[in-house]
């Protein structure tokens, strides 16, 4: 009974709004690599029950199509911005070289990590196999943090480690993010981590469980403060739901057209400059 009362008044997005408020009120003012300056905290967690709705922010519009294409791009193993640009996604352009290359970033490490003995390791395919064969394993994870190749990456991975957990027929996932741009990047990271849980769960015959997000250096850039205050004046709306319209034969065969976002009626987007 008490639980029921507690859950009816709780909107999952409140966790994100609380985080913005904490950054504004208690964030430590720090210089950063980009020269912009931030308000920052160290160590934070949020949890989203994916059966309660898809955790796409509603207090500003997030470009779901862009998120979906970025995730499909990671999963394809690609590290050149051409595919993104062909699909209207420009978020990586500032970091690419004149040919669109980003170095051995996410896609390379997820799908073709080079081992010292000459093997290339497909961490995502191995994860799907392990989820099917050994769902109680405590080693269900993949990471982009390839220490030996960091110096050749346009940016070292921010959303760096993904771990999975199966219980009661549900697949949950933790995303560990070492560095989070709370106003611009984080909404995208939550969306993509949730979408990946939906896809993996479908592939291995489970229901989506919880997304647990864990951040290291979580920051609000100083030139996002006014935008964060505008967002904090808004009331979260009902979360959308995500439908997968077909079951592709493998994790490699999803297309944007397989995703249907139902009932997304967010507040308008809020423009903000990205710190490079
Ligand atoms: N400072 C910084 N923040 C990030 O979030 C970030 C980086 N750098 N570097 C690498 C990638 C690129 N990412 C980005 C970059 C820009 C937006 C952005 O400008 N988003 C806007 C509009 C996007 C659009 O519609 O094209 C938004 O309102 O979400 C989002 C994620 C995430 N990452
Ligand atoms: O998916 C992403 C990618 C990047 N970010 C943010 C986090 C930081 O603000 C910058 C990266 O700068 P570092 O100096 O390498 O930490 O990009 C994000 O939030 N999400």
Automatic annotation (TrEMBL):
Annotated catalytic residues: 158
Record EC number: 2.1.1.45
Protein name: Thymidylate synthase
Principal location: cytoplasm
Location in the cell: Cytoplasm
InterPro entries (alphabetical): Thymidate_synth/dCMP_Mease, Thymidate_synth/dCMP_Mease_dom, Thymidate_synth/dCMP_Mease_sf, Thymidylate_synthase, Thymidylate_synthase_AS
GO biological process, one term: methylation
Positions bound to dUMP: 33, 138-139, 178-181, 189, 219-221
An example molecular function term from Gene Ontology annotations: thymidylate synthase activity
Family the entry assigns: Belongs to the thymidylate synthase family. Bacterial-type ThyA subfamily.
Enzyme type, top EC level: transferase
Biochemical pathway: Pyrimidine metabolism; dTTP biosynthesis
Keywords recorded for this protein, A-Z: Cytoplasm, Methyltransferase, Nucleotide biosynthesis, Transferase
């Amino acid at each position: 009974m008490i639980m029921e009362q507690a859950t009816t008044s709780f909107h999952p997005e409140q966790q994100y709004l609380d985080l913005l408020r904490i950054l504004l009120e208690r964030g430590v003012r720090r210089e950063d690599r980009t020269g912009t300056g931030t308000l920052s905290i160290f160590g934070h967690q949020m949890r989203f029950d994916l059966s309660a709705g898809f955790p796409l922010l509603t207090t500003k519009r997030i470009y779901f199509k862009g998120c979906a294409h970025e995730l499909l791009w990671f999963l394809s193993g690609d590290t050149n911005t051409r595919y993104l640009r062909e699909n209207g996604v420009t978020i990586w352009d500032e970091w690419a070289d004149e040919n669109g290359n980003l170095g051995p970033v996410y896609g390379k490490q997820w799908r073709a990590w080079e081992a010292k003995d000459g093997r290339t390791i497909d961490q995502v395919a191995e994860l799907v196999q392990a989820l099917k064969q050994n769902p109680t394993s405590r080693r269900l994870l993949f990471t982009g943090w390839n220490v030996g190749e960091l110096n050749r990456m346009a940016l070292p991975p921010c959303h760096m480690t993904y771990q999975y957990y199966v219980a009661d027929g549900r697949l949950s996932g933790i995303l560990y993010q070492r560095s989070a741009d709370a106003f611009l990047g984080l909404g995208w990271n939550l969306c993509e981590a949730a979408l990946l849980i939906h896809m993996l769960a479908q592939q291995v015959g489970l229901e989506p469980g919880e997304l647990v997000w864990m951040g290291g250096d979580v920051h609000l850039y100083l030139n996002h403060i006014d935008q964060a205050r505008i967002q904090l004046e808004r009331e979260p709306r009902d979360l959308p739901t995500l439908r997968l319209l077909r079951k592709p034969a493998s994790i490699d065969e999803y297309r944007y057209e397989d995703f249907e976002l139902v009932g997304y009626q967010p507040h308008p987007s809020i423009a903000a400059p990205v710190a490079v």
